[in-house]
Amino acid sequence: MTLLLSSALVTPGFANDSANKSVVFTEKEMQTAAWIRDAARADNMSYKILESLTTEVGPRMAGSPGDARAVAWAEAKFKELGFDKVWKEPVTFPAWKRGVEKAEITAPFQQPLVITALGNTVATPDQGITAELVEFASLKEMMLAPSERIRGKIVFINHKMQSSNEYGLVVPGRSKGASEAARKGAVAIVIRSVGTDSHRFPHTGVMTYDADVAQIPAAAMSNSDADMVARMIKRGKPVSLKLEISASAAGSYTSYNVIGEMTGTELPNEYVLIGGHLDSWDLGTGAIDDGAGCAITMAAAEFIKRNGIKPKRSIRVVLFANEEQGLFGGKAYLAAHQTQISKIQAAAEADLGQGPVTKMASFVRAEALPLVKQMHTVLAPLGIEPGDNNAFPGPDMGDLRMAGAASFGLALKADDYFNLHHTPDDTFDKIEPARINQAATTYAVFAWMAAQAPISFGSGVELLKASK
Ligand SMILES: [Zn+2]
């Protein structure tokens, strides 16, 4: 995802700011933005929206009955909040169903384990699979091991995620481990959960199978159980695991991206795109992942509307369907709006928990950089640092950016995120009003200023070209 764009964007010759002194926000606009920042800080709408979603809907795994309830909730909530336009766009994907999931160490020390099936896994036979465990420190280490060590065994990838920065490093063991293990003759795979916690909850998450290799069952055990299993293995005798999983594919399912828009006054067809993903995993109630992102962005737009400070361009909030099992909502949005990338003034998704926002990066044409600087001036008192001009807008908007959409990266503080992420412990009680409110306030200021900006931020192929 990291392209080196920033230096190219600030080279002289592309920009002509000195000749165009009007490319700044007016004094009055700066005052309005500061007013939004201060007034929204005293608001608790994001907290209320998230309370509503987690209480009235709860788990909403893509393709489950909770998915349909979440779509109905979102449509009704947008209307209740006074959005000018509310609509749905279909998103079709293969659904997956969780079933029984059980594991126990059968020898040398019999103990039950706390595990969960990974999303998209196949089932074990009815009687389960019992086999010896073979431990590896990482996916990489397993891929280097000879097949003779693995054949007929259950692979245990014991890769501990040490900090929130290591998700990208550790997650391939979850997403690709099963096929790599199957290639070497493993009968199942059980990984240490991808999470930074030390509680006894397993972390689920999606995995996929390569087409050219057998499909073996895949599960994750809690960090505490992984520690214990590793201690057993250290004693030097073979350690056997019995795994029972009854998950199954559940056919094709159509959910929806649910969209609410506040209409702009002068350029209503151009819009600032914000949002989060509406689906969650099924173990918790999806408070931090990603009810928070939905609530933050819905509340940001609602605050602007409620206070009658309509910007020139529209503000569009998209609650994406099925992010968790393969970014299906983001892909469907791009497919439906591919020919109108230039209408997106700026894109920014919230999908890393409850906030606060700690940094603002941009991806805009050079002429707009003075405006970004002014936006940062307004946001700095919230504790937000300036970023580079190489922003990534979030998972569901990543493809839009690759298609040239001007983007902002409003970085959320993820200190608690990977303790809770994809576990039964992702629940509303973890949400701190001051944190989520700061994030909603940031999104309100950002969305209003981007929608009010005197010039386009440059979405389109020209932006991509200039950045190469
Ligand atoms: Zn998420």
TrEMBL record:
Its main location: endoplasmic reticulum. InterPro entries: CPQ, Peptidase_M28. Residues 257-444 form the Peptidase M28 domain. It comes from the Bacteria. Keywords: Carboxypeptidase, Endoplasmic reticulum, Glycoprotein, Golgi apparatus, Hydrolase, Lysosome, Metal-binding, Metalloprotease, Protease, Secreted, Signal, Zinc, Zymogen. It is found in: Endoplasmic reticulum; Golgi apparatus; Lysosome; Secreted. Homodimer. The monomeric form is inactive while the homodimer is active. This is Carboxypeptidase Q.
